[in-house]
Write a structure and sequence with these properties.
By secondary structure, the chain is mainly alpha-helical. It folds into 2 domains: about 40 residues; about 120 residues, Winged helix-like DNA-binding domain superfamily/Winged helix DNA-binding domain (Arc Repressor Mutant, subunit A, Orthogonal Bundle). It is about 60% helix and about 10% strand. It contains 6 helices and 4 strands; from the N terminus they run ββααααββαα. The strands form 2 sheets. Strands 1-2 form a two-stranded antiparallel sheet. α2 packs across α3. The chain starts with a strand and ends with a helix. The model has no long low-confidence stretch (mean pLDDT about 85). This is MarR family transcriptional regulator.
Amino acid sequence: MADHTHASGALGRTVTTVGDQPREFADALMAFLSTARRTRGRLQPLFDDITVPQLVLLDAIEECGRDGVGVVANLTGLTQPTVTRSAAFLIRDGLVRYGDNGGDGRRRALELTERGSEVLAAKRDVVAGHLAGAWDDLSPAERALVVPLLRHLSELVERLF
């Protein structure tokens, strides 16, 4: 097998492999994760009324807020006190409210208000519009693969790390 030299090592370093596909996969995935970490703050200029961390929290609350603050914390990788504090600001701004905890006093359910749902949907549209250029750069074959592959890789990374 031929040597492959590329500049997508885990920290952007040049990596040479000799048919070592698991290593190439690891290097490419680490490069992707590193790029995502470095660039995630670049979305903030798209929003003037909400922060990216607040948007992430709104998304998590929509997904699992009814299961309580602890589940939201687990999904976002934040601590429960951080989620509780951040949720308090979102509650103050009318985007989130405490939900029915089903009689379980140990669990503090969260849910989006109508305004919170509208803000989240609008910001998702802004992000989608911003990323449309990347979608346009994909070939039809890449488009058919990219969404299921990204979802699957997200699940794998979640399990591995």
